[in-house]
Amino acid sequence: MWEAGAKSRLEEVCHDIDHFLDPSSASDCHLSSLGPSGPSDSTKETKETKTLSKGQEALEIQRLSRRNEDLKQQLEDCQHEFKTRLQPKLLSRESEQRREDMDLDAKVKKRRLSEMENELAKLRQERDLLEYELKEAQEERQREKASRLKATEECRKQEEDLKNTISSLESELQNSKQSQLPLKTNPDAWKARVSELEQEVFYLRLLLKDWYPEHELASQLRSKHVEFEHEMHESHKTVEDLLHAKERILSLEQEKISLQAALEIQEASLKQCKDAASQSTRAKQDQALYEASIADILHAARQLGPELPEDIGDPTPANLRIAWSRLHSHWTKEAHKTFELEQKLHDAADQQNQFKTEMNKLQIDMSLANLQSTELQGRLKESEDTVQNLKAQNSVLREALAGKHMQFPEIHGEVDAKMIRTADSFQEAQQEAVEVIKREAAVLKNEVGRLADVERKLRKVEGVNAELWQANKELERRILQLHSQEIDVANADYDPRTTKILHLVRGPQDEAAGSGCDLEQQQAARQLERYKKATKKYVSEFREGLYHLLGWKVEMRGDGNSLRWHLTSRYGQVRQELVFQLRPGRSGQPAEFDLLGTPWAEQLQTDRQAMSYLEVYNSIPGFLAHVTVDRLAQQTFTR
Hints:
By secondary structure, the chain is mainly alpha-helical. The protein has helices at 2-21, 23-34, 37-51, 54-178, 180-185, 187-304, 317-403, 409-491, 508-515, 517-550, 599-604, 608-615, 620-638, and strands at 552-557, 564-569, 577-583, 592-595. It has 13 helices and four strands. A four-stranded antiparallel β-sheet has the order 1-2-3-4. The two termini are 110 Å apart. The model is unreliable at 24-52, 181-185 and 502-509 (pLDDT under 50).
């Protein structure tokens, strides 16, 4: 059906081209196809063409030339599409037939290969058994040979001993013959000599009795030696059989290698056919994906600029270049905007930090002022109490003096004057203290108002910071999107009608990666080791710097929720430490450190000034600074 449709389409295109090149031939064709109504139509067309002006004729010629070019392009596209669709079918049929044949051959060869492998396994088992038996026979032969050598050596030693004894006896007999004359004169010596000879004969008989079983053992060893020689002959035969079996195994292994090579060649050719078929389908899929990605890119470029032409949706190189320039300009603008927003964000963060520092200073000043106000209020109460006591004493003295006024009038006047002067001076001092307290209260109110203004400004800055953060995130997302579109456009800078994409099964990058995998692993291991050493050195230097600069040795112990910070002071003869643990923040509150119970911490609980830094100011650095100053003062005092 598809081939018939393509042929009909080609015939229509050819007919349009012929009509453009030779209208008379096309009119003849129409006459034959339309019947009697054809001549009337042709005469009408000729009359209309005669009435056209020259300008209209030129426009008509241009329009027809463009139409001719479009038709030629459509013809080329149809031919290309027909070839691309027809070739994969033929290739797929041939590849399927070849694949089936190769599958059958592969199955036969695999079956034969499995049979040969089974035979090889059996022969290897037989070879192993023969080798094991041969080793056992050789070991037994060596053991028997060693025992036989030992027995022969012992027999030789005994024979030599017997020969020596016989020769010694013969020499003694000769000596006895030579010494017969003097022995006749001495019968006691003769008897002693006879007894010695009898003992020697007795010993010789015992030696002969011991020698007979050894002689029998030697005969048995000779018979065993004959048997072992027979077994050795048989073992030589088995070795020859084993060598023949090895030669047969080698020949079978060579056949196996040749069959495996042939099978690998067939599998490689089959794989090439499969790859060719998969490449054709992959090329179609890539072409479809390429067209879809180009359409998305052009649609995105169309949305970015309404001033683009209306035919920007056509996937031509010119349109792609226009879309790419538009996307690139938009990306540069967005990058510039992000840069400006990042600068604003940094400025806002700096301003926020300044506000925070000012607010912290004001909070510290306010807390100090509150402490001073409480002290002044206590002093005021004490002064009021003293004034009341003085008034009570004054009234008592006046009552006492009223009774004695008549007796001591001069003394009473002087005392009254002194009391009046002291009361006036005390009242003036009290008024001055009250005025000072009022002025300090006014200053504190001004500081509180200023602190409230700073807090409002800080909230505004935090809101602006959050807005800038969101805008920055949005710009980063858009930049990533534009970057991906840029990559797609850069990769799509070719014409799919004239360019064919081929995908390698194993590219040079894969081979290079496979060959250099070990080298990369070794290099990565060396880099990791260097990084560990550098990190360890950096951490040790950082701790040493903290210890010498701040006067505290900081150590982190534990893991997870049980992580604790152990601080040891540089100034102190006894090693003591403070332990802090991070408390997670709640809703609307940041995380804070808590001082845990240690002997030194319990000792510092009595120091109200040190604990005020933690309880009132909530400042751990101030607390540590106070402790450092205290320890340094103690150290200098002890020196």
